């Protein structure tokens, strides 16, 4: 089975040089995992290697939270498009929903998640047998379970039923690696189990240099998101809305109606969520960690959203907003969904760049008669103010789950379970007020509250690798999927229900006799 074979190859990242610190790997020798896992240091390095595929990158490599989720996922949605600098045919076909089971980006997402799961399974097997500090061992095993849950959570949402592998596999014959898909309900059950067990042993926080590792609060917050997802489409197990509310309240502070004591809160300034200077702050529950100019572990999203040709900036304008027609405006985009007083808009986008070389401003005017002086908005969340000519190595982290999203999870689940209660309003208004918006109108129906929350969620977490996951799970008041209608609104008229799941990569099917293609892709 190719996914397992590739995972074995990528294990070289571990066995040829596991991480000496949280963010870097230093090759020293070529040994097997059986020979490697002997000491406490080996155990720490092994867990660091599981984190590695969250953020590793380079000029020719993309990993899930280092651009791959944009080129291989978000561009299929309604907020982003490949810009002039994005010439890869697999990216451009995905953006117009013309992709197939041979699409390279769809394969890379699959392969890299299973490579990380392989590392987690090896670590869980080998670390248990090493004799060292019991408390640290318990924590490391909890980190491995948290990460395995996160990787499977992504896979099951994108592909549906997938092979569930939870043991270290070391076989001689390639045929032994073949494994059939497990029902998504079983995959979710494993995700829940891993997160529950992780929450029991992970610490509430870390001191340097371990800041950024998975915490107890992160495990609980991610579990709340898992419950919300299971209660949504396609599983539609609505009893989990109450579970999402309860789990979110274990993390929310007392001020926000919870019992959590983790110190989480919203930044007063929305822009601080994304700036390198304030990363791993009070709003960040769990993030993919990045360093600038650090052995390929800088955030490579930075230059992709910068206008090409600005002196002193190495932008290639590969990622841009999706334009669509709205009335007379042929250049409508998510940028124009924000109210002018919404503080999130100017933290999320810029409409011009100032050259660090000559001080001049550079913009891209739009030939839009409906909006005089209309200019192209550029995504700005991954910007590193310390980057000038070396913009390929941003130090900006990627928030995988943050406190604002947890408030939105709480508000959505509470509304679905009990209607728009005071609790639901309070959590949503916390997010709106930070954005400079007034409280949501009182007396809304459940459907009206849902629509308002969906919009605020979209505006709050845009360009954070969240939109596609929301598109495939959200529903209207009748319980029907809004996936197709949302994509049709932005001009993707070929969108169909089949696109809610990715096809299983053809190369995986070719190498695994037990693996079947998703039904609508056959």
TrEMBL record:
PROSITE patterns listed in its UniProt record: PROKAR_LIPOPROTEIN
Ranges for domain RagB/SusD: 282-521
Subcellular location: Cell outer membrane
Swiss-Prot/TrEMBL keywords: Cell outer membrane, Membrane, Signal
InterPro entries the UniProt entry points to: SusD-like_N, SusD_RagB_dom, TPR-like_helical_dom_sf
SUPFAM superfamilies recorded: TPR-like (SSF48452)
Chief place of localization: membrane
Domain SusD-like N-terminal: 101-228
Pfam families noted in UniProt: SusD-like_3, SusD_RagB
Family: Belongs to the SusD family.
Record-given protein name: RagB/SusD family nutrient uptake outer membrane protein
């Amino acid at each position: 089975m190719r996914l397992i074979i590739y995972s074995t190859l990528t294990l070289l990242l571990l066995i040829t040089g596991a991480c000496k610190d949280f963010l870097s790997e230093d090759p020293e020798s070529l040994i097997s995992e059986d020979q490697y896992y002997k000491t406490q240091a080996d155990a720490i390095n092994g867990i660091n290697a599981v984190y590695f595929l969250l953020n590793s990158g380079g000029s020719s490599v993309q990993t899930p939270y280092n651009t791959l989720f944009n080129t291989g996922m978000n561009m299929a949605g309604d907020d982003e498009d490949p810009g002039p600098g994005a010439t890869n045919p697999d990216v451009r076909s995905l953006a117009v929903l013309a992709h197939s089971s041979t699409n390279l980006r769809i394969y890379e997402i699959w392969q890299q998640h299973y490579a990380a799961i392989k590392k987690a399974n090896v670590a869980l097997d080998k670390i248990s047998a090493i004799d060292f500090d019991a408390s640290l061992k318990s924590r490391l095993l909890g980190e491995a379970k948290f990460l395995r849950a996160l990787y499977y959570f992504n896979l099951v949402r994108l592909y549906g039923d997938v092979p569930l592998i939870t043991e270290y596999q070391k076989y001689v014959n390639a045929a032994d690696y073949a494994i059939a898909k497990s029902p998504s309900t079983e995959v979710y059950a494993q995700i829940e189990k891993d997160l529950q067990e992780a929450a029991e042993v992970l610490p509430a926080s870390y001191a340097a240099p371990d800041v950024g590792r998975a915490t107890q609060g992160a495990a609980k917050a991610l579990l709340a998101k898992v419950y919300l997802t299971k209660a949504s489409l396609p599983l539609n197990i609505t009893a989990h809305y109450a579970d999402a509310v309860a789990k979110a309240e274990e993390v929310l502070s007392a001020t926000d109606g919870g019992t959590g004591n983790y110190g989480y809160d919203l930044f007063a300034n929305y822009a601080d969520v994304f700036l390198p200077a304030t990363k791993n702050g009070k709003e960040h529950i769990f993030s993919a960690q990045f360093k600038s100019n650090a052995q390929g572990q800088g955030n490579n999203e930075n230059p992709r959203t910068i206008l090409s040709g600005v002196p002193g900036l190495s932008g290639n304008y590969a990622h841009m907003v999706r334009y669509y027609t709205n009335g007379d405006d042929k250049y409508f985009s998510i940028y124009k969904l924000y109210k002018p007083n919404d503080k999130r808009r100017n933290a999320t986008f810029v409409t011009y760049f100032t050259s660090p070389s000559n001080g001049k401003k550079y913009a891209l005017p739009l030939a839009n008669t409906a909006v005089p002086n209309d200019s192209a908005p550029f995504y700005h969340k991954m910007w590193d103010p310390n980057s000038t000519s070396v913009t390929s190595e941003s130090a900006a982290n990627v928030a995988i789950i943050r406190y604002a999203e947890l408030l939105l999870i709480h508000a959505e689940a509470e509304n679905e379970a009990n209607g728009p209660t005071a609790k639901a309003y309070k959590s949503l208004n916390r997010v709106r007020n930070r954005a400079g918006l007034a409280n949501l109108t009182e007396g809304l129906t459940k459907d009206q509250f849902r629509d308002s929350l969906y919009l605020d969620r979209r505006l709050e977490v845009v360009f954070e690798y969240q939109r596609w996951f929301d598109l495939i799970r959200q529903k209207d008041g009748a319980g029907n999927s809004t996936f197709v209608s949302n994509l049709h609104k932005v001009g993707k008229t070929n969108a169909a229900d089949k696109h809610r799941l990715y096809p299983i990569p053809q190369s995986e099917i070719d190498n695994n006799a037990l693996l079947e293609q998703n039904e609508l892709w056959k």
